[in-house]
Amino acid sequence: MNEKEKYILHLISKNPYMSQNELAETMKLSRSAIAGYISSLTKQGKILGRAYALPEASRITCIGGANVDRKAQSQESIQYGSSNPVSVTQSSGGVARNIAENIGRIGSAVSLVSVVGDDQEGEWLIGSTNLYVDTSQVMKLPKMNTGTYTAVLDQEGEMVIALADMAIYDSINDSFIEKRWSHITSSSIVLLDTNLPSHLIRKIIERCRRDNIKLCVAPVSAPKMKKLPNVLSGVTWLICNQQEAMTLVGECRNNRVMCEKIQQLGVENVIITRGERGIIYQTNDSAYGEITAPTKNSIDVTGAGDAFVAGFLYAMNKGENFRKSCKYGMTCSMLTLQTQETVNSQLHEQLLVKTYQQYFEEDK
User: Fold this and answer.
1) Residues 6+ apart with CB under 8 A from 243
2) Residue 322: in which H helix or E strand, if any?
3) N or C: where does the chain have the smaller number of CB atoms within 10 Å of the terminal CB?
4) 349-359 vs 322-337: helix axis angle to the nearest 10?
5) CA 263 to CA 260: how far, in whole Å?
């Protein structure tokens, strides 16, 4: 960014509604020259269009899935080939959406880049999300169904089958991302899940590397781990579970070797979550570590991984060190484990900080 562009930003910060003619007169330049500078600043993500809105310095942008999740639990032993009485619950879902809501509830600025159908489910999903998340970058697609995930459980609560309608994500194209790139590049951190088509995942990783944007990748599942490109240069943090890690690099003789193999693909920092056994990690300066999970009773594991990512990014965005941010992630995860909700509806920043201090007293 040159000196003239810096001065234009200064003028706009004082008056976001300043016209290009007024800028030209103030700077004693032609209107066409001002238009060129404005175009350049927009492409850099330094301004966000009319009325030249300046980007939020600490906003996290989450790119990926936004689904409607349903659980249908049988009230009796399941009878195949017949009608079964069930109780059905519905909640908002999608990895990127869940992470965004957690971050928003904690109190950080966050936006969601995703797609929903132009249907009742999509309207409901946006309405249940925009209380905590900027959903202005979510697009409604006509003639497409909002993504849904339906789990059928037996009377004991064990999953019998899961049904996923995620075809809507295959319709996301380069233009969708290109139109939102000035918004994405103005973020302090970008979170990407693997619901998008493979070529777009590769493109976003490459562009974040080229534009020097901090990028966190959170895979949705082991099968969708295969959507990641072979070269992961540009990924600042990869956060995955052990099964997903093995899908990426195969079985390894020990955890440290697994982290090293992932880093050899280009990832700067690796975090592998292991449920009750806590996490392992390796940073870009080859610091390897393990953190044991606090001993607490779990009610439901759904959404715990998403909560970990949210807590980790919240702390990194606040300027905390890597290990402390991991502990914030574990704290957020534990708060979710102690509820049946995918996103803890009682979550807020004060609760997160207080619980963190209870779990990790040495960091008070």
Assistant:
1) 222
2) helix 322-337
3) C
4) 110
5) 5
The three-class DSSP label of residue 63 is: strand
Of 113-117, 162-166, 213-217, give the lowest mean pLDDT range.
162-166
**CA-to-CA distance for 348 and 89, rounded, in angstroms?**
24
Length, in residues, of the chain = 364
CB 147 within 8 A of CB 20: no
Backbone angles phi, psi at 218, to 5 degrees: -125, 100
Instruction: State how far the Cα of 61 lies from the Cα of 134, in Å rounded to an integer.
Output: 9
Q: What is the pLDDT of residue 15?
A: 67
Encode pLDDT of 261-276 as tens digits.
999 999 999 999 998 8
pLDDT of residue 53: 55
What's the token pair of residue 44? 């850099």
- How far apart (Å, rounded) are the C-alpha atoms in residues 67 and 121? 9
Contact 332, 293 (CB under 8 A): no
Q: How far is the C-alpha of 41 from the C-alpha of 37, rounded, in Å?
A: 6
